[in-house]
Amino acid sequence: MKSAILALAISGASAYVAPQTKVSGSALAATKDEVVALAEANPDFLGQAIGFWDPLGALDTNFWGLGNEGTIGYLRHAEIKHGRVAMAAFLGYLAGSTELVSGPHKILPYRGYEPGLTPPEQWDAIPLYGKLQIIVLVGMLESYGEILDPHYTNGGLPGYYPPIKGKRPELVFNLFDPFGFFEQDSPEKKARGRLAEINNGRLAMLGIFSILSEAGAPGSVPALQGLIPAYDGNVMIPFSGDFSIFS
Fold first, then answer.
1. 154 is in an annotated binding site
2. Less CB within 10 Å around the terminal CB: N or C of the chain?
3. What is the dihedral of CA 63, 33, 151, 66, to 10 degrees?
4. Helices (H), the chain
5. Is 123 a known ligand-binding residue?
6. pLDDT per position as a tens digit, 85-111
7. Is 53 annotated as a binding residue?
8. Which pLDDT tens digit goes with each residue over 140-181?
9. What gap in Å lies between CA 238 and CA 22, rounded to an integer?
10. For the chain, how are helix, strand and coil distributed in percent, rounded to 5?
């Protein structure tokens, strides 16, 4: 497990991204040589300044018996997914810091809502059942993405989420591209979009952790000093105000 965590921590710098040209299904389950080529061809700062960087040898590992190519698919998918979460977290933090979101509301967003709290404090103020609803919804979406065939560890496209529109009467939109803006894009444009997404995700991971670091330890990020309100809690213990398994 520790090896998996360490590998995920450095996977962002290894540029596990889709190529900018149309590829066959077999190429989606990239080999180590293909991933090295993708990393060195990446035009972002890491790709140009560092190229391929895998100090822990993550690409030579075999997670849970998936094999080398399956492990590479897992790591590529993990980086894309973590980048998406980071982009949502970064924008969510900024939006949650505005008066429009954190100010007074005629209709309370949840029971016990208090205006003027920072985003981490707002999370702490949400009742436990409200938090559990969010976790269950995310888990449902995640489980549906995992049953896609072919799986991303077995030749599938890392980062791809299957359509959900029409699967049930209440599902009238897809999770990705709900209004169909990108349906007519060429394969080349979609490949460029995937590359832009992974680069933006890396930047967002740095951004959200910079904000959280400054909030938890004021002055730790000089560029953000005085801009981010201090937070006395611990974002890594999201249910600390509700229960503890150690007490």
1. no
2. C
3. -20
4. 2-11, 25-28, 32-41, 45-49, 67-96, 99-102, 119-125, 128-146, 187-216
5. no
6. 999 999 999 999 999 999 999 998 888
7. yes
8. 989 888 887 888 888 888 888 888 888 888 888 988 888 888
9. 42
10. 55, 0, 45
According to the annotation, is 111 in a ligand binding site?
Answer: no
Question: Is 197 marked as a binding-site residue?
Answer: yes
Q: Which residue has the tokens 């970064």?
A: 90
In the DSSP assignment, the letter for residue 110 is: S
Q: Give CA–CA dist 156/159, Å, rounded.
A: 9
Taking the C-alpha atoms of residue 77 and residue 146, their distance in angstroms, rounded to an integer, is 11
| Burial of 214 (C-beta count, 10 Å sphere; 0-12/13-18/19+) | buried
Amino acid at 132: L
Cis omega (within 30 of 0) for bond into 238? no
**Topology of 32-216 in CATH?**
Chlorophyll a-b binding protein (1.10.3460)
Q: Which amino acid is at 156?
A: G
Annotated ligand binding at 121? The verdict is no
- pTM value is 0.78
